[in-house]
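Private note to self, pasted from the team thread so I don't lose it. Backbone tokens:
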């Protein structure tokens, strides 16, 4: 008698996100969605990524249209699909009246007033598309508040759906500060029952929160580093959600983001004048010369002999710019040079521009963003400054480590999980870390880094230790697979 055929487990995931490279980007969320799906495919999962087809996106071919009613509004949803070379399936939702706009979320730093409807449609249309396929998916993975209603719909109006009912959900918090807060009268307008307006479900200080709904209704909650998962359960970092997250602490897991180790590879980076790796760091000097040149700083014995400290950042308080501003008079006195790339608050932009004018051989600034220059700074800088007030994960410190650029960071969130402080007895050190959020603490960390730079053997060991670390998406994807399997088990077995 022949052995019974082995049933293959369902290893399919539906990812829902409001932005994803290469289609759209305002922040790190897009980077995650541009890399994690491919890493999951390499682990044997079938991945479908659903995201809006914003203005200017020409990708995909129209595969179907369907009408979707949300409250009193009916929308014609165009489904554009494309497959990445590695097999990731991408579904771009084309609803021009909602997504064909100048910016993704705001205009003039003011939220679009219909954002609740726009992103309710994202979740509803993604689930509708999945239900129309006629095949169960193993797990739904939703990202940030914009996809926060996906778990809510699955527990309410879609709970008895023949295809979608009972589907487990993983919800990832990329930044707890963004909570999707709206007036409660949006509930019926989004086909959600009024009983969700309660402290136990979506109510948050008299409003509804898409984020809170997702936290309460998801099977598993993840965030983007182990330390941040602990921090957001405290008053200091919890943004008012610490009690909610403490209640779900048993289902809250921190998974560190990865980086694209193909695009960010000093041995094969087209933005660099000369490749280098941990065995031969000569190319870093060539990159340093190129960075100084781009910033109009003469590359001579004096400037090349000083440590070059880079920073690529939004110029906002969260990134520690208030600490830097408090030290503005001290920075030119240090035996170092600084190159800055980024945009943000006008006051901080002016501060850096003023320093560059006053100290042209010490400080260089470019207001804006330039991807090629960002790669060049990571390669050419000797150290990289990230004095963040809070940092859910952070990517630049991982780029820096890979490029032999020593991170100078505050011990918060993903920075604490990726950079180990140098001490004379610690052989595994990879950077300079400070604890207290204070100008003096940052200044002392900069002085420590500059002093260590004057000890070439110790500095070289620090560089090489960082370059050996693995912060690839393959490592992160393995952790997400564990969460998918756990969610499926908690939901009642393989689907």
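Design output:
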């Amino acid at each position: 008698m022949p052995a019974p055929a082995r049933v293959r487990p369902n290893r399919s995931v539906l990812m829902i996100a409001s932005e994803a490279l290469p289609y759209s980007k305002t922040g790190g969320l897009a980077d995650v969605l541009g890399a994690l799906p491919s890493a999951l495919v390499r682990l044997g999962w079938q991945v479908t990524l659903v995201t809006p087809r914003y203005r200017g996106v020409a990708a995909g071919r129209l595969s179907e249209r369907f009408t979707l009613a949300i409250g009193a509004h009916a929308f014609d949803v165009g489904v554009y699909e494309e497959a990445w070379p590695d097999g990731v399936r991408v579904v771009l939702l084309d609803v021009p009246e909602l997504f064909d706009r100048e910016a993704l979320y705001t205009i003039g730093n003011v939220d679009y007033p219909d954002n609740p409807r726009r992103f309710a449609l994202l979740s509803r249309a993604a689930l509708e598309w999945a239900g129309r396929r006629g095949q169960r998916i193993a797990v739904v993975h939703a990202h940030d508040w914009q996809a926060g209603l996906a778990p809510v719909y699955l527990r309410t109006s879609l709970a008895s759906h023949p295809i979608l009912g009972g589907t487990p959900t993983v919800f990832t918090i990329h930044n707890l500060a963004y909570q999707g807060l709206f007036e409660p009268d949006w509930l019926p307008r989004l086909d959600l029952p009024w009983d969700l307006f309660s402290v136990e479900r979506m109510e948050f200080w008299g409003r509804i929160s898409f984020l809170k709904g997702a936290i309460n209704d998801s099977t598993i909650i993840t965030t983007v580093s182990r330390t941040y998962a602990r921090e957001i359960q405290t008053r200091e970092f919890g943004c008012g959600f610490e009690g909610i997250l403490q209640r779900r602490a048993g289902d809250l897991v921190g998974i560190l983001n990865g980086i694209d180790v193909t695009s960010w590879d000093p041995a094969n980076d087209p933005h660099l004048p000369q490749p280098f790796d941990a065995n031969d760091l000569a190319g870093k000097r060539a990159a340093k010369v190129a960075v100084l040149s781009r910033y109009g700083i003469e590359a001579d014995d004096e400037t090349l002999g000083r440590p070059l400290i880079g920073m690529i950042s939004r110029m906002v308080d969260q990134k520690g710019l208030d600490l830097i501003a408090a030290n503005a008079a001290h920075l030119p006195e240090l035996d170092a040079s600084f190159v800055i790339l980024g945009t943000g608050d006008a006051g901080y932009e002016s501060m850096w521009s003023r320093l560059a004018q006053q100290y042209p051989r010490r400080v260089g600034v470019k207001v804006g963003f330039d991807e090629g220059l960002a790669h060049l700074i990571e390669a050419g800088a000797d150290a990289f400054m990230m004095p963040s007030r809070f940092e859910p994960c952070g990517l630049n410190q991982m780029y820096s480590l890979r490029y032999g650029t020593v991170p100078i960071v505050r011990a918060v969130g993903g920075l604490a999980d990726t950079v180990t402080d140098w001490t004379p007895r610690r052989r595994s050190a990879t950077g300079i870390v400070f604890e207290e959020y204070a100008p003096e603490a940052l200044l002392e960390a900069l002085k420590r880094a500059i002093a260590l730079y004057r000890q070439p053997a110790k500095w070289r060991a620090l560089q090489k230790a960082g370059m050996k670390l693995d912060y690839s998406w393959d490592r992160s994807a393995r952790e997400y697979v564990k969460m998918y399997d756990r969610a499926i088990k908690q939901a009642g077995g393989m689907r």
